Amino acid sequence: MSLSLVIAPPSRLKPWLATAWRYGLSASGPVATSGAHFLASLLFVRNLSAASFGLFSFVLVIVPFAMSMTASLLVIPVTRSLTQSPEQRAAVVASCMKMNALLALATTLAVFLLLLLAHAELLAALLLGLFGGAFTFRWFVRSFAFVEGRAKTAVACDLIYALVLIGGLGLLAWQHKLSLSAGGLCLLLAALASMAPAGRNFFAVQWSALFNGRLGLYANIFRDVTRWSLTGVVLTEMTVNAHAYLVTFISGPGSFAVLALGMLLMRPASLVQSALPDLERPRMTRQIAARDWPGLTRTRQEFAAGLILMLVVTMVLDAGLLGWFPSLVLKKGYAFNSAVIVTLISAVIMAVRALRTPPAVQMQAVGTFRELAVIGTKSSVISLIATLGLLLAFGPIASLCGVLCGEVAILTETRKLMRRWEQKRD
To answer: Which of 78, 227, 269, 401 has its CA 20 to 30 A from that of 251?
Structure first.
């Protein structure tokens, strides 16, 4: 079953309504997840200390990084296998599913150790570490559903996650028992419950892959494809979130809490930016294979328009919150002016990111992973140097401008790469 059949709008709709239909279905799940994280952050920022809120926000930096690694290491080769024979595709899927389990385990350990280094309590670090592993695993579950053409399954995973998380945290808040550890338990249970729509068949295949999946085959996949996409993800992470790691470990999680306010207010736009590539990458891959250049251009333009629209909606919501209901976001210890400045800088960063994501995803579909890794190297160096310099000279808020410098570098170089490919293609 093709993805287009699952989420295709009625043919009578106008083009712009058809695009809205397609993005509306695919984005409904990420928006629900984003809303749940937004409400969780609101509860945490109002009920926990700045240090605890900073640690929670740090987890919401690490976990999306693991999600991006899942996309680069596993979702990309599974997507590319769509053009292979059924036997070859089955072997690739089994190998990637085996790697999925290993990656989830590695994420659990990494989050746990990083939180301990950031002086989190043992129980909170353990529960949030398990959440990181479970959420990473579920990201492959929902992404695989999109690739397989089961968009409704992917959306259901997100909706269940949001409902369980909001219900659990709401109950804790009502009983005045909200803590970082209790919140970590709610996040973990929500991540586990959200995988139920995948069904027995998926988990039967996943279980079989633990024994039948060949790591040797994945070694070939890594050599030919994913080593470059992984390098690109790691370097992009250094560009995008250098401030999170530097501020947390140099200035402390309490200082990062101020920057986390900007992340909190940009959450709807950021999660959609993370989720839509999994929808558009398979579509672009098929269009490139069919040499449907007008369709490819249209997809890229619709992709960018969808991201910009979500950013505008997010900014309107943020303006309403800060202008009329600042007490919902801020409590004693958070300066209003600092929150506004952080939000504005974060919005500019997200705008640049919305422009550079569609061409980057297109070039991933083309397979130019090595070239994208080179771009990531340049941008990460720029971002690290600028972020560290601004942090040491002017403090945590100024460090965000270093991230902006790296994002502009990615946008500029990616568009150049896309234009060179289009000239050779024509």
So the answer is: 269
What radius of gyration, in Å, describes the C-alpha atoms of the chain?
A: 21
Distance between alpha carbon 46 and the CA centroid of its chain, in Å? 25
Domain annotation covers residue 5: no
Q: Can you tell me the distance from the alpha carbon of 418 to that of 296, in angstroms, rounded to the nearest whole number?
A: 12
CA atoms of 77 and 365, how far apart (whole Å): 10
Say if CB 236 and CB 352 are below 8 A apart. no
Number of C-beta neighbours around residue 337 at 10 A? 7
Which of 101-105, 220-224, 296-300 is predicted with the least confidence, judged by mean pLDDT? 220-224
Q: In whole angstroms, what is the distance from residue 262 CA to residue 408 CA? A: 19
Which distant-in-sequence residues (6+ apart) come within 8 Å of 221 by Cβ? 77, 92, 95, 96
Tokens matching residue 215:
């790591």
Is residue 251 in a domain?
yes
Report the predicted TM-score, pTM, of the whole model to 2 decimal places: 0.73
- Reported confidence tier of residue 415, pLDDT bands at 50, 70, 90: very high
Q: How many folded domains does the chain comprise? A: 1
pLDDT digits (tens, 9 = 90+) for 141-184: 988 888 887 878 888 998 999 999 999 999 998 998 899 999 99
Q: Does a structural domain hold residue 1?
A: no
Question: Is residue 2 domain-resident?
Answer: no
| Domain that includes residue 94, residue range | 11-425
Handedness of CA 391, 394, 400, 402 (dihedral sign): negative
Q: Where are the alpha helices (DSSP H) in 325-395?
A: 336-366, 369-394
